[in-house]
Amino acid sequence: MRAGGTADTAREILTSFTTWAVVGASPESHKPASFVPAFLQSRGYRVIPVNPTYAGQRIFGETCYPDLTSIPASDGVEVVDLFRRSHLVLPHVDEACEIGAKAIWMQAGIVNDDAAAVARAAGMLVVMDRCPKVDIPTLLGNSFRAGHAAA
Length: 151
Description:
By secondary structure, the chain is an alpha/beta fold. The protein contains 5 helices and 7 strands.
């Protein structure tokens, strides 16, 4: 089993939740922190960007926030997607706990067992070292759209 969570956990997150906060989001289209969230949007997910560098600006057609706790509760963040170095994710997981997120998704190459343990202790689903841009077509099929039954 992958240290970062099983394909079943990834599938559950992708099919159960539609509102994602992307920590480290970027407006620079050549960066994974831009094209992965754009892919999520193209599949029907709502993507809320989080990056203090771009706070107040619009990325992916949404207002960018400086941190997770600045996102209005009414936006109902379900998944926190982390584009941060492994050793920097724990404070974001703590914020995810504070806002009541349901899942943590650490992108490909990002693994932090301590942060994962905190998230799991708070009742969250956790995926590490995976990418939804890869997992959606692989696990759910090329035509999958959020909010619809998996193929």
